[in-house]
Every structure is written in structure tokens, then in C-alpha cells.
Amino acid sequence: MTSTTVRLAQKPDLDGPLPDVDMATQLAGADFINPILTASGCAAAGRELDQFFDVTTIGGVVTKSVMLHPRSGRPTPRMAETPSGMLNSIGLQGPGIDAFIDKDLAWLRERGATTVVSIAGGSVEEYAKVASKLRLVPGINAVEVNISCPNVESRGEVFACDPVAAAEVISAVRRSTASSIPVLAKLSPDVTDIVEVARAVVEAGANGLSVINTALGMVIDTDTMRPVLGGLTGGLSGPAIRPIAVRCVWQIHAAMPEVPILGMGGIRTGGDALQFILAGASAVSVGTAIFADPMAPARIRDELIRALHARGFGAVRDAVGYAHRAPDAESAPEEPNLVAFEDGEPELESDL
């Protein structure tokens, strides 16, 4: 922390002007004007969101994962609502890397948006080829490697669930990507020890980590008595996975505090985003919330500014990992009686 005095949360002024908080952050050497990014797969390449708010005013746009060749995706139905979340089984449908570069990436570059390109593949070689296609393309601020794809060369096992396979992908992408472009490995929560996988990909060349991808789930229709999704299983996202995601960020930051983390998983409010930052994330991605509220990234950005100010932070970077500080038994204040206010942030009951 800097000399800023951090205090217990006070009720923010939700109607007044935004307080002065330095929201600039850095992730694996890439600079972002604020820590709020979109999440891959929830906003395509940002064009749809730009009609609701200026996409250049958030930290960045993380594109939908793109593969080497056009892909039609998995059979329908592809989505199912769940308590506090949703399952998706889209199957990485997309136009392929060449069309993505010509259309989507060209639009992002012309728009002036900070861009993180998410890539995917079914083999180590395919990941490397996709990364190579991007090597000389301008306007890319970072590459996010979606290693939660099945490895077609290894009986369909998911790369992210095997430290060795995950490391092989990241090593190949790092070699095929311009040295000036950070490579982020997107990790899966469906592992016994996420820190083990994190260490493996960092040692293989990942400059940072995206934590977490969706968790594998299933819904069964009790009328038809069959799985709802055409692809049987799907990725669970939304508030239901937020505690898992925060735990993963916490564990990785505790083990490797020097490794930058892009946190994600069920972020709906500025308070949710703050949890990830306090756990150790330098930036966050907003995903499922966009389906119900396309203004969510801009709204969460503003809520986070107020939440940081209410706690005495003058800069977002001062809050990164702050929850890991050692407890001070002598000076710790008596635990306050907290109640909820409008945007989900806690406040002191005495301030009501």
C-alpha cells in the first residue's frame, strides 16, 4: 500500500460525480486505462456492445476464442439457465483466424479499442499456427490462450487439466507470438490443484494468467429425462462460480504473487470485481452479466471506482492482493455490523 489510509467501507454517493481514483493497471506488461475487460465468448469482438457504451472507455475487449479454420460449433440446444448462472455449449463456433483478422480485428483496431485476442485449438500445432497468424498483425495488446479445449491428440482430454499438456501449448504459442505481446494462459477450475497448472504454464512462458474459465456442468430435463444441452455438457458461468473463481485467484496469488492475474467468474457488480482485485487480480473480465445488461462493463467500472474510494484507495493498484495482508491483532478494529446497500456493497450500519 501507499500512504493512502484505507478505511472500512462507507456508503458511496451513487448519484454524485465519480471520485478521483487512479484506475490505470498493468497486466503482464500491457497497459490498461482501467481494470474492467470483457470476457471471451460473451461479447464477440465488442461491436455489439459499442452501441450501448464506448468500448474504448473500458480496460479492453477480450475477443471470442478463434481457431485456425471456420467452425460451426456444437449441436443445439446450446444454452441452459441454471440457478445463479447458465450453461453454454457453443463449441467455439467462429469464422476462423483469417476472417477474424480481416473483419473483427480490423474493426477493433479502427475503433481504437484495447484488444486481447483469445485463441483456441485442438492440438499444440494448431495453437501455434493460430498464434503465428497474429504475429505481425498490429493492434493486439495481449493474447489469451484458451487451453480448456479437448486435446484431439490425447483421447479428448482437456489441455488445461494436464500441467504437461497445458505447458506444451503455452510454450508453442509463446514461441509463435511476438516477444512484445504478453501471453495469458486461461486456466480451468476443473482440476485438483490449479496452482500446479499455473506454475507449469508460467514456467513454459506465460506472462500472466486468466482465472478462471467456466466449470463443466450438466442439466437434465425431468420431463424428457434427457440432458438439456445438445452437446450433453456445458460450461457453467455466472454468480454461481464466483466463490470458486475468487478462491482460485487467491491460491495462485498466494503461491506466485509476482504473476499477473486477469480474474473472472460471475462478476455482476463493482463489489464483485473488488473481491477479485483484493484476492490478487490486477484486472477482471465481465462475461455472463452482459447478457442481461449490455452496459455491465461500464457500470461495473464506475461501481468499482466508488467502491475503491469508499475504502480509502487512491489507486486500483494499491488494492491488488490487499486481502493477503497479515492480520494485525493489536490494531484491528472491532468487526463492524454490515448490511447491504443498493449495488451489493457492504456498508456500516451506523452510517444508515
Walk me through what this model shows.
With 352 residues, the chain is an alpha/beta fold. It has one domain (25-327): Aldolase class I (TIM Barrel), CATH 3.20.20.70. The chain is built from eight helices and 20 strands. Strand 11 (183-187), helix 4 (194-203) and strand 12 form a beta-alpha-beta unit. Helix 3 packs parallel to helix 4, helix 5 runs parallel beside helix 6 and helix 6 packs across helix 8. The longest helix has 15 residues, at 97-111. The protein is globular and about 55 Å long.
List the helices and strands and how they pair.
Elements lengths: L24 E3 L2 E3 L3 E3 L22 E2 L16 E4 L2 E4 L8 H15 L3 E5 L4 H11 L7 E5 L3 E2 L5 E2 L4 H14 L6 E5 L6 H10 L4 E4 L3 E3 L2 E2 L4 E2 L6 E4 L4 H14 L5 E4 L5 H10 L3 E4 L2 H4 L3 H15 L27 E3 L5 E3 L4
Parallel strand pairs: 3-18, 4-7, 7-8, 8-11, 11-12, 12-17, 17-18
Antiparallel strand pairs: 1-2, 5-6, 6-16, 9-10, 13-16, 14-15, 19-20
Helix pairs in contact: 2-3, 3-4, 5-6, 6-8
- Which shape, going by the Cα principal axes? globular
* Rg for CA atoms: 20 Å
CATH superfamily: Aldolase class I
Give the % helix.
Answer: 25-40%
- What is the arithmetic mean of pLDDT? 91
Highest-level CATH class: Alpha Beta
Number of separate domains: 1
Q: Largest sheet, if any?
A: 8 strands, parallel
Total E-strand runs: 20
CATH architecture descriptor name: Alpha-Beta Barrel
